[in-house]
Design a protein that fits this description.
Blueprint (H helix, E strand, L loop, with lengths): L9 E2 L1 H10 L7 H13 L3 E4 L2 E4 L6
Antiparallel strand pairs: 1-3, 2-3
Helix pairs in contact: 1-2
């Protein structure tokens, strides 16, 4: 099983916002975490499937 397929790599939007808000990088303002999730989706680091967020599998060549 790849790390991207592990249970820890699947989470809801609210869980993602909570994780980001708990980090020192983002303020507790919800709009900051929403912006970060949108950027991660747009850049391909996350994707949405069945209403949950998942981490994109990365391969090193």
């Amino acid at each position: 099983m790849d790390a991207a397929d592990s249970p820890e790599s699947e989470f809801s939007y609210d869980e993602a916002y909570t994780l980001l808000n708990e980090s020192d990088t983002f303020s507790a303002e919800h709009s900051d975490s929403e912006y970060a999730v949108k950027r991660l989706l747009n850049r391909g680091y996350l994707y949405e499937a069945d209403g949950t967020l998942r981490i994109t599998e990365t391969t090193l060549d």
